[in-house]
Design brief:
disordered N terminus, 129 residues
């Protein structure tokens, strides 16, 4: 009897794990809501928001030529995947008075996927190998 429970538990964990993996291809689709304000990739330019090339690992408020809010510039945040996850959940809660008026991505998986998509890009817009 315990063997059956153990097998069922192991199968549940094994089947749930792929659902939690990051999927950059899905993130590219989910990034469409971000495209209203941000560009990424070769030839990306500043739009309503800063270019997101190389954003993972970058200090907040430092993309050259973009006029950040003092709140964002002075936040001291380094955009790690964990910080991006918090920020993309609710930007105003993480950086009060940021210019980013986006309400946030409430779906955990979509945030993970968007972050995986962002992680692919070097500062020059090329994709990492």
């Amino acid at each position: 009897m315990y063997r059956s429970y153990f097998i069922a538990a192991a199968l549940s964990i094994a089947l749930a794990a792929p659902a939690m993996a990051q999927d950059a291809a899905a993130g590219e689709k989910d990034f469409l809501v971000c495209k209203a304000c941000h560009q990424i990739g070769p030839g990306a330019k500043i739009a309503v928001g800063p270019v997101l090339n190389g954003v993972v690992g970058r200090t907040a408020g430092t993309y050259p030529g973009y006029q950040y809010s003092p709140a964002n510039k002075d936040s001291g945040i380094v955009w790690t995947p964990e910080e991006l996850d918090k920020y993309l959940t609710n930007p105003q809660a993480v950086v009060p008075h940021t210019k980013m008026i986006f309400p946030g991505l409430k779906d955990d998986q979509k945030r993970k996927d968007v972050i995986a998509y962002l992680e692919q890009f070097n500062e020059d817009g090329s994709k990492k190998n």
